[in-house]
Structures are given as C-alpha cells and as structure tokens.
Amino acid sequence: MPDLLTITDLVKHYPSGRGRVVHAVDGVSLSIGAGEVLGLVGESGSGKSTIGKCILRLTEPTSGRIVFDGTDVTHLSRRGMRPLRRDVHIVFQDPYSSLNPRFSIGQIVAEPLRQHRIASGRAATDKVCEMLERVGLRAQMRHRYPHELSGGQRQRVGLARALVCGPKLVVADEPVSALDVSVQASVLNLLTDLQRDMGFSCLFITHDLSVVEFLADRIAVMYLGSVVESGPREQIFTDPQHPYTRALLSAAPVPDPAAQRDRRRVVLSGDVPSPLAPPSGCRFHTRCPVAIDRCATVVPSLTPVRSPDHPVACHLVTEDSVPSLAQ
Ligand code: SF4
Ligand code: MG
C-alpha cells in the first residue's frame, strides 16, 4: 500500500538553559500506509509525543522531512498547512484538559467542521449528532458541558471531534492512559471499530505495549529519541529481537499464564537516562543486560534482520549471536 505519511531523519532538539540541549528525537524515520495503524511504543521521555507534535506542526522539527499524502509539509506556511489540518487530527491523552470547559459538547465537536468550512448550521448539527452516536453517546449529549461527563465520555467526545472531518490520519497520543482501567478497553475497542469502519490511518502512541497488541498493524519501539526496532505486530510480539523490546514485552501482562512463562521476565536496572545527556554508543547500553564493550562507543544502526520490514538497532542481533536474556 502507498505510504500516507513518511518521516525521514526527524530530529527535534530543544534548548534547555545554560547552553544545554534536550535530544527529544534524534534521527527517526517512519512511514504509515493508507488505512494502517502504527503503534509507537516507548517509556515516557522517549520522544513519541514529540513526533506526533512535529507531524501536526505543533512544534517545529529541528531537521528532517515529513511528507504527508505526497506533499512535503515540513516547512509549509500556516496557510499551506490548512489541508493538513483538515486531514490529520489528534486525540490527546488527557480528556479533562483537552476539552474547553466553556463550550458545549455540540460546539466542541462542530468546531473542526466550522474551521475547515465543511458544514455549518443544520448540516453541522446533523453531522455532530451522527458522530456522537458513532462514538457511543446519545445525540442529546451535545447540549451538555465537559464537566458533566465522565472521563470515558469525554474521551469519546475527543474521538468524535478528531473524526468528524473524516480525517486521513489520526494521531492518538496515549488516548486511554488517563482513563480508569475499567473504561480503557471500551474506548480502545471503539477506536478499533471506528478505524476499521472509516479506514483512517493511525499513529497510536503508547508507553504500554499490550495496548497495541490487537490494534496495530506494525509497531515501532523507541528508546531515548531513536527507534530501536520496528516490524509487523506478530513479529514484534512473537519474535522480538532488541533487548529493550524483550524487556518491555516481558513486563506486559498476558491473559494466558502459560504464555507468560515463555516470556521470561527481563528486569531493567536503573532509570531512563536524561535526554539532556544521552549515553554514547548504543543509548540503551547503561541498562542493557547483555551489553558488550563496543556498545558504549559504537552506535548500532537499524538493520533488517528477520525480514526487510523488521529492522533492529543492536550489535548483537545484527551479528546474529543473540544471547539468552533469561535471568
Ligand atoms: Fe544492548 Fe549493545 Fe544491543 Fe545496545 S547494542 S541493545 S547495549 S547489546
Ligand atoms: Mg507523551
């Protein structure tokens, strides 16, 4: 399938006082096909949200290239960005702060229709009612205000607002992690159903690998600003290659206890290093249970291992001599 979004060598560095620089994103290349869901996974501070913001130009990339639907959008003017803003929408993590408390639900969901001159008046109201029902809310809900809704209902409103223009791409940034565990599954199932019905592509950002197990077509794993492994979902879950991916997977709960035994738990020592001073060589070397001397000095490059669409950045994996990670 042709790529809808292609990101090449994206870098985002922020100045951080006293001449120091936060290396938020350091040379990430990704692509998302039409109708495809890419799960972007990593611990907090790995740069996932920054990538989402760069796509929507909520923050300016330091360097690199972003091509959306055949157009290089990296340096477009505000005016030139309009088609992108119509076709790409974001669902934010926090359903409490992302809805303006002064507007009714109907006004909030209608706002993108008005902004992009897609519909107004009666036609807009009809679209809003239809969209509310598609996300599992009653059309009457449009007269309510955000403070009258539960977290799960608010996130459904966030979805309705993101989808009302019929976007080509949805950036979902940890859309369920602020919700009660009891409602997370229903919102995830809803997003999955809507994605299949409406066919939009999705960049699904999460710190929790298990969240994308049933949703993503492909998965990219990030660590400290770089992608360390990416590939088709089944390959990532059944045959993970990078020691970091294995550690994330071993920590994820699985419904079948027998399967859990196969995923021997890999416990990582220490915290994620500061993106102000990322480690030399392989950035994971300070926590990697199988690091060798070379890892501290030589940066491993992403190299396909199992198949052309499954690249991994690890000296040991690309040398085809992966030791057991069991502890
Ligand atoms: Fe671990 Fe070295 Fe591989 Fe990095 S390159 S993941 S430190 S073995
Ligand atoms: Mg984030």
From TrEMBL:
<feature type="domain" description="ABC transporter">
    <location>
        <begin position="5"/>
        <end position="249"/>
    </location>
</feature>
<dbReference type="InterPro" id="IPR027417">
    <property type="entry name" value="P-loop_NTPase"/>
</dbReference>
<dbReference type="InterPro" id="IPR050319">
    <property type="entry name" value="ABC_transp_ATP-bind"/>
</dbReference>
<keyword id="KW-0067">ATP-binding</keyword>
<dbReference type="InterPro" id="IPR013563">
    <property type="entry name" value="Oligopep_ABC_C"/>
</dbReference>
<comment type="similarity">
    <text>Belongs to the ABC transporter superfamily.</text>
</comment>
<keyword id="KW-0813">Transport</keyword>
<keyword id="KW-0547">Nucleotide-binding</keyword>
<dbReference type="Pfam" id="PF08352">
    <property type="entry name" value="oligo_HPY"/>
</dbReference>
<dbReference type="InterPro" id="IPR017871">
    <property type="entry name" value="ABC_transporter-like_CS"/>
</dbReference>
<dbReference type="GO" id="GO:0055085">
    <property type="term" value="P:transmembrane transport"/>
</dbReference>
<dbReference type="GO" id="GO:0005524">
    <property type="term" value="F:ATP binding"/>
</dbReference>
<dbReference type="InterPro" id="IPR003439">
    <property type="entry name" value="ABC_transporter-like_ATP-bd"/>
</dbReference>
<dbReference type="Pfam" id="PF00005">
    <property type="entry name" value="ABC_tran"/>
</dbReference>
<protein>
    <submittedName>
        <fullName>ABC transporter ATP-binding protein</fullName>
    </submittedName>
</protein>
<dbReference type="InterPro" id="IPR003593">
    <property type="entry name" value="AAA+_ATPase"/>
</dbReference>
<dbReference type="GO" id="GO:0015833">
    <property type="term" value="P:peptide transport"/>
</dbReference>
<dbReference type="GO" id="GO:0016887">
    <property type="term" value="F:ATP hydrolysis activity"/>
</dbReference>
